Amino acid sequence: MLGEGILKGLWETAKNFTGSYVSADRLTTVEYPEQRIAPIEATRDFPFLVFDEENRDGGDPVWEAGLRCVACQICEKECPPKCIYIERSKDKKLDYLGKAQYYPARFDIDISVCMSCQICVEVCPFDAIKMDTEFELSTTDRFGGLLLDREQLAKPNEYYHKIHPAEAAGVDAHLAEEKVKADAKAKAAAEAKLAAEAKAAADAAAKATGEGA
Amino acid sequence: MSATLDQIFVLLQHWLVSFLPAVLQPFVSVLLGVVVIIGLFPALFAFAVWMERKGLGRIQNRLGPNRVGPFGLLQPIADGIKSLTKEDIVPLSADVVVHFLAPLVLVVAVFMGFAVLPMGRNMVLVDMDAGLLFYFAMGASTELSIFMAGWSSRNKYSLLGAMRAVAQMISYEVPLLMSSVAVVMIAGTLSLTKIVAAQNSYSGVFPHWYIFTPWGLAGFLMYVVSSMAETNRSPFDLPEGESELVAGYFTEYSGFKFALFFLGEYLAMFSISGLGTVLFLGGWSAPFSFLTWVPSWIWFFSKLMMSISVFIWIRGTLPRLRQDQLMNFAWKFVLPMTLLNLFVAALWRFLGEGWERWVICSVILLLAYVVLGRTGMREGKFGPRRYRYAE
Q1: What pLDDT, in 10s, does the model give residues A6-61?
Q2: To bridge A66 with a disulfide, which of A52, A118, A208, B314 should be the other Cys (CB 3.0-4.6 Å)?
Q3: A26 and B61: CB-CB below 8 Å?
Q4: Which of residues 24-63 of A touch B (CB under 8 A)?
C-alpha cells in the first residue's frame, strides 16, 4: 500500500537515531586528532628517499652520504604527472657495494602534483625510493611548502622498517644478497688478478732462469 | 500568575510603549513586534540547523558537529562568521540588480508570513480578518524570488533549478491551499486567530484540534506533503539537488547572499510549520485540558519544534523523488485527495453531531486513499520505475 515503505524507513531511521545514543558500537566515527587508527601495511601516499646510516664516510651529513639514489633518472622519466626533478652530480661517490656512482645533486618532488601511483618505486633498480605513510602535510605555503627537496625527502632505513616492516625486510635481504654477490665477484676478480700476477711473476722468473741457463 | 506568564510578552510590549507619547505608540508597538520576529526566528534558525546536523548525524550513526562549543552548539555561529567573511562573487554575465535582489525578496516575503501567525494568546503582529489569504499571497511570492535567482545567474544549473522549483511550487501550491480550505470551511473564517480559538475547547481532557477528525487528519497529511514540497525540503529537494544541479537556483550565490537563501529556506519551513500548527494542531492551545496553565507561547513553539523535528526525520529517511514522480504525485494523488477532502469536510459539517459522520467520513477517505494509492502504484506513477532494458 502507498506509504508503507515510508513508515518502514521512518522506523529504521528512528532506530538508528536512538540506537546511536544507546550502543556505542553503532557509531563508526573515529574522532580523528584524539583517536587514530593504525595504518594498514600497504598504506602509501607520497614517495621518500631511503638512506643507509651505516654507510657514512664522515664529513657529510649522514643522510647525504647514505642516499641509495644514484640519480639514474628512471623515476623522473616514468613519473606520469612529472612531479620529480633530478639533477645529476658531476663527481662520483662510492655506494654500498663499493662502486663509484653519481648521486643526486638535486632531487625535488612536488607533492601537490604527485598522484601516489607508486610507479617510481616500481621502476627503481636501487630500492632508493619508497612510499611514505605520513599524511599530515598541510602547510600555509601552497607552492614552496609542497615542493619537497632531497633533505626533506631523505629518511633512514629504520624509518622504512617502521612503516612497512615486511617490505623493508625483503628489500634488505635482497640488498644483502647483492652485496654478497658483489663481494664474491670482487674477491674472485682480486684472486684472478693475484693469480694472474703470480703467474706473470712465475713466467718472468722462469724466463729469467731460462735465459740464465 | 500563570495568566501573567501567558501574557508576559504582551504586557512587556505595553509597558515599554507606555513611556512614549501617544502619537508614536501604535508605530513603536508594531515595530517592537517586528524586531522580536526578526530577531527570534533567525536565532531559531541557528538552533534548527544545529538540530538538523546533529539529528541527521545520529540517523546515519554519526556524531554530528561536536567541535565548536559544548555539543557543537556554537557551530551555527562559526558558520555564520564564515559566510560573512567569504567573498561575494557575482558572475560577469549575471543580471546584477536581479541577482542582488533575489535573496532579499525571498527573506522579506518569508518574514511577511510571520506577521499573521498567532504565536500565543493575543500574540499576533497583525490580526487580519483574511490572515490565511495574506499568508498564501506572501508564500506564493517566494517562487518569484527563486526564479529571479535562477534567471539572473545565467547558469544552466541555476536556471534548471529555478524551472524545477517553479514547476514544483506551483503544483504543490494547489493542494496546500485546498487542504487549508477544508479548515476554513469548518471554522467559517479566514482569520488565523479565530481558527485557533475554534480549536481551543475540550471534550473531557481532549482538545478539539482539527487533526483529530477524519477530514482534519487527511488534510493535515496532505498539508505536510505539500508543505515539504513548498519549502523544497527533502524528499522534494529537486530544485537544489546537489547530485544533479550543483546547488540548483543558488549555485552562483556565495557568502552572505547564500546564507540569506539558507535562512529564507529555514524561515519558510518555520512559517509553514507554524501555519500547519495553527490550522490543524490547535495553534497555541494546550494538548490536554489540565495543561492549560502552561503559557500558550510555549505550546506554540514546542509544536513548531516538533514539526521541525519531523521535517528533519523525513529528510534523514527518504531519497529524492524524480521529477515525474513528483508531478504525478501532486496532480494524480494529492490534488484529488484534497478535492475529496473538501467534500468530506462539507459532509462533516452537515451530517450533524453523532458517530455516523465519523464512520462515513473515515470510510470515504480511507477508500479513496487505498484506491488512488493502489492504482498509482500499479501504474508505476509513484513507485519505482521499471526499466525495460534492465530486465
Answers
A1: 899 999 899 888 888 888 888 888 888 888 888 888 888 899 998 887 655 555 55
A2: A52
A3: yes
A4: 26-29, 31
Question: What one-character-per-residue DSSP string does B154-177 give?
Answer: T-HHHHHHHHHHHHHHHHHHHHHH
Please give the Cα distance from B336 to B330 (Å, whole number).
9
**Number of domains comprising chain A:** 1
Residue B77 is assigned to a structural domain of this protein? yes
C-alpha cell at position A206: 722462469
Point out the residue among A2, A10, A26 whose CB comes nearest to the CB of B373. Answer: A2
In a domain, B360, yes or no: no
Tell me, what DSSP letter sits at residue A29?
Answer: -
**ipTM topping 0.95:** no
DSSP H helices, B202-334, are: 214-230, 242-245, 255-280, 296-317, 323-328
Asked if B276 and B146 sit in the same domain, the reply is yes
- How far, in Å, are A16, B52, B174, B319 from residue A27 at the CA level? 10, 18, 43, 22
**The domain containing residue A77 runs over which residues?**
47-164
CA–centroid distance for B134 within its chain: 15
B372 domain residue, yes or no? no
C-alpha B331/C-alpha B221 separation (Å) is 16
Residues, chain B: 391
Residue A104 lies inside a defined structural domain of this protein: yes
Q: Do residues B70 and B119 both lie within one domain?
A: no
Closest CA relative to residue B300, chosen from B145, B193, B202, B214? B193
Asked if A13 is an interface residue toward chain B (Cβ–Cβ < 8 A), one would say yes
Tell me whether strands A100-101 and A93-94 are parallel, antiparallel or unpaired: antiparallel
Cα torsion B102, B108, B113, B117 to 10°: value is: 150
Please tell me whether the peptide bond between B207 and the residue prior to it is cis, using omega within 30 degrees of 0: no
Residues B159, B295 within the same domain: yes
Residue A2 to residue B62, Cβ atoms within 8 A: no
- Within 10 angstroms of residue B99's Cβ, the number of other Cβ atoms is 21
The residue segments making up the domain with residue B234 are: 92-321
DSSP state of B141: H
Domain end (from B36, B61, B85): B85
Model pTM score = 0.77
Judge contact between A2 and B373, C-beta under 8 A.
Answer: yes
Say if CB A153 and CB A49 are below 8 A apart: yes
Q: Indicate which CATH number applies to the domain containing A142.
A: 3.30.70.3270
Per-residue pLDDT reduced to its tens digit, B347-371 = 888 887 888 888 888 888 889 888 8
